[in-house]
Amino acid sequence: MRWPIVGRLEASQSQVQICREFNLTPSVVCNLWKQFQNTESIERKPGQGRPRATTARKDLYLFILMRRKRGATASQFSRDLYAATGTGVTGVPVSKRLNERGFFAKRPAVCAPLMSIDRTVRLAWNRVIINSRYLWISTWPIRILKRSIWYLLIIKRSHTTKTLVRSGLHCPGIVAVIGAVVDVQFDDALPPILNALEVEGRKPRLILEVAQHLGENTVRTTVLWMVLKA
Questions:
Q1: Whole-angstrom distance between the N-terminal and C-terminal Cα of the chain?
Q2: pLDDT digit string, tens, across residues 89-147
Q3: Rg for the chain (alpha carbons), in Å?
Q4: DSSP E strands: which ranges in the chain?
Q5: Contact yes or no for 91/75 (Cβ under 8 A)
Q6: 153-170 burial by CB neighbour count: b if 16+ within 10 A, else e?
Q7: For residue 208, which phi and psi values (nearest 5 degrees)?
Q8: Which of 228, 229, 222, 227 is nearest to 149 (CA)?
Q9: Is residue 92 classed exposed, middle or buried when 0-12, 13-18 and 19+ CB atoms within 10 A define those classes?
Q10: Which Pfam families match (predicted)?
Q11: Are the C-beta atoms of residues 58 and 81 closer than 8 Å to each other?
């Protein structure tokens, strides 16, 4: 786009018309014309742009820190770099430098604490599953009853009637999770949490029904069908 602008300026077209035609500010066209008159070129000068946040020696220091502290986060590495060299760098450049060498800083995981009802549900789940041959499933309610994943299921359900969630929670053996959220009104006492394991053809299917109390005689029931590997 620069050469057409210079060509129109050489053809005695005004800068105002060029700015309107190319939707540019007058300063851009003026600086481009001055650069062409002084250097007879419109290429960018070497070294222009934002300077590099860290030097090669500081990158090497980051790699040494990564080998010493493999469990640290990018923010901790940036603080250590500032304490050693006095250069303030955010966590984003630090992560990019480590990724260039194949290192990955640990990401801080924020886990919401479990409520009393969640602990009760998890304990009841483990007591039922402990006698089953699918012992590894006992780690699933620890992940699913945390508020971050719980809200994720409900938010996904609010857009469509049936939601198909792929196994992105790093839980081995699960092929797919199909969830549905239903608000139910009860006149009597609230129903207990139900879970059952059944076999559909050759693929075992785990049905989990979790009740979330919303108010008096009201519960939101989240039903999950987990298709397991045979």
A1: 60
A2: 888 888 888 887 777 776 655 555 667 777 777 777 666 655 544 333 333 333 333 33
A3: 30
A4: 163-166, 174-185, 194-200, 203-215, 218-228
A5: yes
A6: beeebeeeeebebeeeee
A7: -125, 125
A8: 222
A9: exposed
A10: ATP-synt_ab_N
A11: yes
Which sequence spans correspond to the domains of the chain? 1-39, 56-101, 173-227
What is the predicted pLDDT for the residue at 81? 86
What gap in Å lies between CA 78 and CA 91, rounded to an integer?
A: 6
> Using alpha carbons only, what angle is made at residue 140 by residues 156 and 200, rounded to the nearest 5 degrees?
80
d(CA 134, CA 24): 65
- Determine contact, residues 196/176, Cβ cutoff 8 Å: no
Architecture of domain 173-227: Beta Barrel (2.40)
H-type alpha helices, 130-206 = 140-144, 147-159
Using the CB atoms, write b or e for 23-51: b if 16+ within 10 Å. Answer: eeeeeebeebbebbeeeeeeeeeeeeeee
Inform me whether the pLDDT recorded for 62 exceeds 80.
Answer: yes
**Alpha carbon distance 69, 84 (integer Å):** 15
